[in-house]
Amino acid sequence: MPGAPEECDLAVVGGGIVGLAVARELTSRRPGISAVVLEGADRVGSGQTGRNSGVIHAGIYYAPGSLKARMCVSGARAMYELCERRGIRHERCGKLIVARDQTELQRLDELERRGIDNVVPGLRRLTGPEIAEVEPHCRGVAALHSPQTGIVDFGAVAGALADELRERGVPVATGAAVRDVEVRGGRVALSHHDGETRARFAVFAAGAQSDRLAVRAGAPADPRIIPFRGSYLKLAPSKRDVVRGMIYPVPDPDLPFLGVHLTRHIDGEVSLGPTALLAPRGAILRTAAWPGTWKMVRRWWRTGLVEMRHALSRRSLAAEAADYVPELTAGDFQPYFSGVRAQALGRDGTLVDDFVLSETERALHVRNAPSPAATSSLALAGLIADRAEAGLD
């Protein structure tokens, strides 16, 4: 595995799907530049990229005109094209967003409006009886069906992007966690495990470390990354056929989370989750010291209690699934995997609900890139490259 160079034109910090896509985009536009990807873990795509539900989102949820809406719709199209070209296993298995009772219909109406405004392909409204035509075991009063929502292993996509970079001669240096950032002599100096790399321009797509590294580069502290831990259960093999694709509830519009959902994975497993608890390990002091944390807790303490109950009780989490698939019980589920979502939180306690990019001297920072960042990664890379190219002139 090649190490990190001492000098280069472009350094991309973060070997998740967004960082790799950015490196791929910029080296495609400028094939003569020298570049490197610096990843702290021992393999690419091992963070948020490889520990999620693997959904290629269609763009239903996001406020029209937002970066999430624009990047998700075009990013999904690009993701399918990449998977087909590279032979990466994927499937358009479709998604239902189910209104479980009359009180959720107004929110479903708003999702339908957003989906139409965002030009989500094939989106249609279903009545209660029509739900069973798509998911025979699902019950509700109405639903939205998104046939173009799909599944993939984003870790495999990240691996393919890394392979493409290596084929171009771009080193992808793993085990090279960036510890410090300093601008000197017209270069961005990045201190990491292998030593120091000095680049003419750097793009930071560092997930849970994005705020810390941005501040080291001279950016404001706001927003702060607050890591949330999400755990999943999986259906027993004998019950996998109960779910054909994906079944989601109507989410709370005030939170940037999609609720507890059932999702078929590309390997055939069916998951239920995730929970959403603050992830204390390794980040508790930084999380507690941020003023926005306590403002968020005061506002959402009831939601936090529900999430804690879900995390502690398999029966409680399974009951969420039984709301729309009544035949499922706690005994049908087994422990599965956990992941961490790097969510930006403002000083005022607001959970940031869009992608956020910021700039410092000779650098561009991805300050917030939670879901649907994996779906959006190829389109987001184009946007980032547009802004980063000037730094390479």
Give a verbal description of the structure.
By secondary structure, this protein is of the alpha+beta class. It has 2 domains: 7-49 and 155-221 and 354-392, 3-Layer(bba) Sandwich (FAD/NAD(P)-binding domain); 91-149 and 224-345, 2-Layer Sandwich (D-Amino Acid Oxidase, Chain A, domain 2). Helices cover 32% and strands 27% of the residues. The protein has 10 helices and 20 strands. The chain has helices at residues 17-29, 67-86, 105-117, 128-134, 154-167, 210-216, 284-289, 291-312, 314-322, 373-388; strands at 7-13, 35-38, 55-56, 90-91, 95-99, 124-127, 142-146, 150-152, 172-173, 178-184, 187-192, 195-204, 224-235, 246-249, 261-264, 270-273, 277-278, 333-345, 356-360, 363-368. Strands 5, 6, 7, 13, 14, 15, 16, 17 and 18 form a 9-stranded mixed sheet that branches. Strands 1, 2, 9, 10, 11, 12, 19 and 20 form an 8-stranded mixed sheet that branches. Strands 3-8-4 form a 3-stranded antiparallel sheet. Helix 1 (17-29) runs parallel beside helix 5 (154-167). The radius of gyration is 21 Å and the shape is globular. The chain starts with 6 loop residues before the first strand and ends in a 5-residue tail after the last helix. The mean pLDDT is 92.
